[in-house]
Design brief:
DNA polymerase, domain 1; about 450 residues; 18 strands; binds magnesium ion; globular; five-stranded mixed sheet; six-stranded mixed sheet; Dna Ligase, domain 1; MutS, DNA mismatch repair protein, domain I; alpha+beta; disordered C terminus
Length: about 450
């Protein structure tokens, strides 16, 4: 397997940080999200607590009664799950700008496969900084990130320097990184297994790593083999995308409110241009267009319009936005914010925008499926979405999604946009294994 760039992003004290974000008076204070402690008699557990509360020894999943005893001055707040999932959505959406392969592990953490994105985002350290900065910019919240060649090491790395941390494990450095860590840091090793391992004399990951696999199997059963692999940074599990973008939007808030119509139109043009490019990059087309306007005094209005067929092109977006601006009765008020969004993306059974067909001679096309011809002459058809890859990576991404076994065996794989009415720039890119030109 080639070297992968797997990023694990984990929001810091997610629920508690959101409470502090929304209520500035809670910042710097021990905030405990969970059931009402009822002066120490409450039932239920802590779901998250702020770093200030952690200093008192409060932890997630701890009974609130215990948390209350440890930190009576703690500010206990009930969870607001709607708000948490709203921000989670923004986090996942932000992450999807860095890779089509984003796997949400929970509401506040995700894996990204950013293999081959150096050209776009720079080396791993830059990539990590950019991801963290963008998440912060979009949500006001901090995240910790770990970058490594496989999921289990990336996961450990994100936890290595929390909060607001970034840990990059260089390719080949995984084993050295893991070696000094206590065994309970291995992903999937819970307190019970950790206790058992320690009882057997395995205190650090290096103790496990250097033990023959068979010995661990004998001691721990099949689980032993798994732990051996984790300790040796052997983890070929792919990032399995489970999150799909549902909408895309862009908006601009003005430094000072304005009613200059020409200026507003120019801003809308810029927004539509950038939105259209983003949609092009992510292979999105949407049926419903949204216009958002906020006036002096913070009143916000949205107007949406559903089209018979999905679009992504700049002209349609701009026409819609200009028209909405023209029609909107501002009652003489100035504009504070303006934005455009697109939603109701074309489904898989509709015309796919990207179609991968490998066997050029037979010009075989297959909707929603990838067709790849291997060097051994087989033509394999696999369910696989091209994903939202940047066009010049889409082929690799699809092959990746089809499974590692195809890597290196692909004779040709061509990806090209379809149903574009000639409006879209030519995006065809052929894989490294194919030097044939666009036909
Ligand atoms: Mg977290």
């Amino acid at each position: 397997m080639g070297i992968r760039t797997i990023v694990h992003v984990d929001m810091d004290a997610f629920y508690a940080s959101i409470e502090q974000l929304d209520a500035p008076e809670l910042r710097g204070k021990p905030v405990i999200v969970g059931a009402d402690p009822k002066s120490g008699n409450g039932r239920g557990v802590v779901s998250t607590c702020s770093y200030e509360a952690r200093k008192f020894g409060v932890r997630s999943a701890m009974p609130v009664s215990q948390a209350y005893r440890l930190c009576p001055e703690g500010i206990f707040v009930p969870g607001r799950h709607k708000r948490y999932s709203e921000l989670s959505g923004i986090v996942m959406e932000t992450l999807s700008e860095f890779s089509p392969l984003v796997e949400g592990v929970s509401i506040d953490e995700a894996f990204l496969d950013c293999t081959g994105t150096e050209g776009l985002f720079g080396p791993a350290i830059q990539l990590g900084k950019k991801i963290k900065a963008r998440v912060r910019e979009r949500t006001g919240l901090t995240a910790s990130a770990g970058i490594a060649g496989c999921k289990s090491v990336a996961k450990i790395a994100s936890d290595y320097n929390k909060p607001d941390g970034l840990t990059v494990v260089p390719p080949g450095g995984e084993k050295d990184f893991l070696a000094p860590l206590p065994v309970e840091r291995l992903w999937g090793v819970g307190p019970k297994t950790a206790a058992r391992l320690k009882q057997l004399g395995y205190n650090f990951v290096r103790d496990v790593a250097k033990t023959p696999k068979e010995d661990l199997e004998r001691l721990l059963g099949r689980w032993g083999a798994h732990i051996y692999e984790l300790a040796n940074a052997i983890d070929p599990r792919p990032v399995a995308p489970g999150w799909q973008r549902k909408s895309i939007s862009e908006e601009t808030t003005f430094e000072s409110d304005t009613d200059d119509l020409k200026f507003l139109r120019d801003v809308l043009t810029g927004i539509c241009e950038s939105l259209s490019q983003k949609m092009l990059r992510e292979n999105l087309k949407g049926r419903t267009l949204q216009f958002k306007i906020r006036l002096t005094g913070f009143e916000t209005f949205t107007r949406s319009h559903t089209l018979p067929s999905p679009v992504f092109d700049m002209h349609t977006l701009r026409e819609f936005a200009w028209d909405q601006l023209e029609r909107f009765d501002r009652k003489g008020k100035a504009v504070r914010l303006i934005g455009v969004g697109v939603t109701e993306f074309a489904e898989d059974d509709a015309e796919p925008q990207m179609d991968l067909f490998a066997s050029v001679e037979s010009n075989q096309k297959s909707k929603g499926k990838g067709v790849v011809e291997t060097s051994e002459g087989q033509t394999r058809e696999e369910k696989g979405q091209p994903g939202n890859a940047a066009p010049n990576e889409a082929v690799d991404r699809l092959i990746f999604a089809m499974g590692e076994k195809f890597k290196g065996k692909v004779k040709r794989a061509v990806i090209r946009p379809r149903g574009t009415d000639g409006r879209m720039p030519r995006l065809l890119r052929q894989s490294e294994h194919d030097d044939q030109k666009e036909t």
